[in-house]
Amino acid sequence: MPSPFKVMTIGDAMITFNPAAKGPLRFVGSFDRKVGGAELNFAIGCARLGLNSKWVSRLGKDEFGRVIYNFTRGEGVDVSAVEFVEGYPTSLNFKEINEDGSGKTFYYRFKSPISTLSPEDITADLFEEVSLIHLTGVFLAIDKNNLAIAQRIIEVAKQKGIPISFDPNIRLKLWTIEEARKAYESIFPHIDILLTGLDEIKLIAGKDSEEDLKEFASEYSIKDLVIKDGANGSKLLRNGEWVHGSSFKVTPVDTVGAGDGFDSGYVYGWLHGYSPEELLRFANGVGALVTTVSGDNEGLPYLEEVSAFINDEAIIER
Question: Which one of the listed residues 78, 167, 260, 263 is annotated catalytic?
């Protein structure tokens, strides 16, 4: 049965080169070609959970752009708002993965195709049947003009009564924390759900205590303030009350994409009316499963996999 809910997101996508060996990148001699990008991961995560998922983007008119387009379409994501552009190479990144599953990402996305978008491209027809819009700070960081595009999206969403979720997803290799804070401050008053890591909110707001974060959420009228804290679990502030969600015990092999997976799980539960406790358990389950598979989106689970995992707390055969 088709989902009654449709989510839309906007952002750059990249060809991701995953190392064939763990350790410092300078010692890695071969890579596997994959597809990645925060917003694209989110779109795929939503599609695998059964939501109708739409991704707005631009790709280089090159072989890598075609790889991303075909892969995304094959995942069931609506790519009707994705276009190819000449003269802007499809973005790349190279990942470094350590023995403990942590890692670094090295970006090559100058003259990103997404920078050819303008506020005039955000037309009302893009929002048809959309139930929720998800934005991230990665899109804002890639090009200074993208803030105006995000503001246009917010403007139309508010006119149509569409809720907005936002993940700061700080990328300090793309801009400074001062630039990020300034952009976020213009976004925060207009969002319904803020999905952020504990370290991120410390950088953004200079606050991490629950009382201080209550003041922060109240200042910007954020309905759901969700704090992601990896192996320590997550917590949700709603209506002035904190709810805590425990993490699942897994052996991580790659943490990249776990936050995007968490976001897709949270949005899925939110649209389906889950209670705060159910929301955190479901989103934590999605994020945990992502870490058990190497790659940006390879570990994003299907709905039945998440349900089985969170119900018996055992890693299922995948």
Answer: 260
- DSSP 3-state of 240: coil
| Domain range for 144 | 39-87+119-312
Cα angle value 242/266/106 (rounded, 5°)? 105
Long-range contacts of 157-163 (CB under 8 A, 24+ apart): 157/127, 157/133, 158/190, 160/124, 160/127, 160/130, 162/127, 162/130, 162/131, 162/132, 162/133, 163/131, 163/132, 163/133, 163/192, 163/193
- The Cα 129–Cα 2 span in angstroms is 13
Q: Which helix (H) or strand (E) holds 60?
A: strand 52-60
229 is catalytic: no
pLDDT in tens, 264-303: 999 999 999 999 999 999 999 999 999 999 778 999 999 9
Q: Is the pLDDT of residue 234 over 90?
A: yes
In a domain, 16, yes or no: no
Residue 9 domain-assigned (yes or no): no
DSSP 89: P
Section 208-218 average pLDDT: 94
We report the CATH number of the domain holding residue 199 as 3.40.1190.20
Single-letter residue type at 245:
G
Q: In whole angstroms, what separates CA 25 from the centre of its chain?
A: 25
CA dihedral defined by 229, 163, 125, 111, rounded to 10 degrees? -30
Q: Is the pTM of this model over 0.85?
A: yes
Instruction: Give the end-to-end CA distance of the chain in Å, rounded to a whole number.
Output: 24
Q: Are 43 and 130 in contact (CB under 8 A)?
A: no
Tokens 């804070």 — which residue?
181
Alpha carbon distance 307, 286 (integer Å):
9
- Say how many domains are in the chain: 1
Burial level of 24, CB count in 10 A (0-12/13-18/19+)? exposed
